[in-house]
Design brief:
28% helix
C-alpha cells in the first residue's frame, strides 16, 4: 500500500498534516513580503499573516465587533426589541373548509 501524502493541495486548497515544529509554527504566521493570507502550518486552508498590516485591521474589526456585542448584552430579546419571549402554551386553530 502506498504512503499517503501528508501535505499538498486538493482543489486549490492547501493541506498539511505533518507534525508542526515550533519554528515552523512561528515562521508560518509571520511572513514579511507575502499577502494577507498564508498556508496554515497544520490543517486545511489558510490563516492570517501577522506581518501584513491588513491582517491587523481584520483582527481590530473582529475585536471591536466582539466587544460591542458583549457590551450590548448579545441577546436577541434586548430592551430595543419589544417582542417578548413567551415559552407558554400556544393554541392553534385550523379551519378545514
Amino acid at each position: 500500500m502506498a504512503d499517503k501524502q501528508s501535505s499538498g493541495e486538493i482543489l486549490g486548497i492547501p493541506y498539511n498534516f505533518e507534525r508542526p515544529s515550533l519554528g515552523r509554527l512561528l515562521s508560518s504566521y509571520w511572513q514579511p513580503g507575502k499577502g494577507m493570507l498564508v498556508e496554515k502550518p497544520f490543517g486545511i486552508g489558510y490563516t492570517l499573516n501577522l506581518a501584513n498590516w491588513r491582517s491587523w485591521v481584520v483582527l481590530a474589526v473582529a475585536g471591536g465587533l466582539y466587544y460591542q456585542q458583549k457590551q450590548s448584552g448579545g441577546s436577541a430579546g434586548s430592551e430595543e426589541d419589544p417582542v417578548e419571549d413567551d415559552d407558554g402554551p400556544v393554541e392553534v386553530i385550523v379551519d378545514d373548509d
